[in-house]
Specification:
The protein is about 25% helix and about 35% strand. It is built from nine helices and 17 strands.
Length: about 450
């Protein structure tokens, strides 16, 4: 898809204004007696359109801004925010943050991240690509209609549409603190997708597809998105159930991301210092097979979470999260690190672009290697216990025989324990789903309990 940017780009001037605003607010915090302070200023704008059955349903333009102020009086913390940039509102926000701090208890872990950890080399990673359709609603509508029409024309069994949508937006942000750090970021993000309903009556099945990118030129072709969504919906017609048993389970790439997400939740500082994780005291231990690896890459061009600094201004760095199957570290900001007696990993606000290393070929290769088992393409419910690691979720997908899809299945549950599931991973495919900051291919777990009929 061709990329068209807006004719005038005033983003740097707007970042200059946000930077100047953040400095004025820090000065006010200092004048008010704060020993430390930090300020986040953000501006976002976007357009979202939705169509269904060839008719326009929604056209929504948005423009948001926010200012958040956090002050520290010694080890006491107070925060306040506003969307009103009038001087009296900004002054009231600082005063409110200071009042809160004066009435809170001391917290020995409170405070800015250490000064020496602040990022000094602040770069951009080719993530700023505004799309002209933000200012051209009719063109956005036409693209959404084209996606839906391509899917409706694909197969006569597509009897209904759940709609198609296009979203585009930009974001500007400045973070500054009383260490003298100031970091500026700008990014864009665009999406195009649709969902269809195949079949009639009790035999109806729903599925869809979407594309998302930082630059419009990286989006999939609208016709291809519509056709793939329709193909996925039709492929689910006439599902069967399975006999309850223990089977190999292959999580498609988009579902495999959730397994990585459960790992991230369990090794995040907040869960650890609250002792609400099944992976307490697991750093340095073998959690996965010895070939398994996850690398954090914050400097990827056009990466969804590329950044030179985290939410506290700490410099990001490339590092292993898992190497040789061993958990190398936790995911920490400065507060959680202090609570645990450790050092921040530069992950305040989350991780920056994770890559799960593959040890196998594409999806077809992994299916042939599995031979017989369950391919999961949809997960439902929230049946994961973060304290015990017990895992039980509704699922749908395809039964695999002789390395090929034999028939669709639904109305089943896949269950196990995440620690056991991690150990039982047999393959990671090279079929990476690039629509997320967690980049992984399909993941094959050697055996899980599948609850179906009987």
């Amino acid at each position: 898809m061709s990329q068209i940017t807006t004719s005038t780009d005033d983003s740097q001037a707007r970042l200059d204004a946000l930077s100047e605003l953040s400095q004025r607010l820090l000065d006010r915090c200092r004048t008010s007696g704060a020993s430390q302070a930090e300020v986040s200023c953000n501006e976002e704008s976007g357009l979202t359109v939705g169509v269904r059955m060839g008719e326009v349903e929604t056209v929504e333009a948005s423009r948001d801004r926010s200012v958040a102020v956090t002050v520290y009086f010694g080890k006491r913390k107070g925060s306040a925010s506003t969307a009103d940039l009038r001087e009296e509102s900004l002054q009231a926000t600082v005063e409110q943050a200071c009042a809160i701090a004066r009435h809170t208890e001391d917290d020995e872990a409170a405070g800015l991240a250490d000064r020496e950890l602040m990022a000094s080399d602040i770069r951009e990673f080719d993530g700023w690509h505004p799309w002209a359709v933000e200012h051209e609603p009719q063109r956005a509508i036409d693209l959404a209609l084209a996606v839906e029409q391509a899917g409706r024309d694909f197969d006569a069994r597509i009897d209904n549409s759940d709609g198609a949508s296009l979203g585009t937006g930009t974001s500007l942000g400045v973070y500054a603190n009383s260490h003298g750090f100031i970091g500026r970021e700008r990014s864009s993000q665009h999406s195009l997708g649709c969902a269809f309903i195949a079949g009639k009556g009790d035999a109806m099945q729903r599925d869809g597809w979407y594309s998302i990118a930082l630059a419009a030129e990286d989006l999939e072709d609208p016709a291809a998105i519509g056709k793939r969504a329709a193909e996925r919906a039709v492929s689910r017609l006439a599902p069967r159930q399975l006999a309850t048993g223990s089977y190999p389970v292959l999580f498609s790439a988009e579902m495999a991301r959730s397994l990585v997400g459960h790992l991230l939740g369990a090794v995040s500082g907040g869960a650890l210092y609250r002792r609400a994780s099944f992976l307490l005291d697991s750093a340095g231990t073998q959690l996965f097979p010895d070939w398994f690896a996850i690398q954090e890459r914050p400097f990827m061009p056009r990466g969804f979470r590329s950044a030179s600094f985290d939410a506290e201004g700490v410099a990001t760095r490339e590092s292993a999260l898992v190497e040789g199957g061993v958990l190398q570290r936790y995911i920490l900001g400065s507060y959680s690190a202090r609570r645990l007696g450790l050092r921040t990993t530069g992950n305040a606000g989350g991780v920056h672009n994770l890559e799960v290393a593959a040890n196998a070929g594409g999806l077809d290769d992994v299916l042939r290697g599995m031979g017989r088992g369950l391919l999961v393409t949809e997960l439902m419910g929230q049946g994961v216990n973060s304290i015990t690691g017990d895992y039980s979720r509704g699922a749908a997908g395809f039964w695999i025989e002789d390395g090929e899809a034999a028939y669709p299945v639904d109305g089943i549950t896949v269950a196990g324990n995440l620690r056991d599931m991690f150990h039982a991973i047999e393959a990671v495919g090279s079929d990476v789903d690039a629509r997320s900051h967690v980049r992984t291919g399909s993941i094959l777990v050697g055996a899980m309990t599948v609850a179906g009929e009987g």
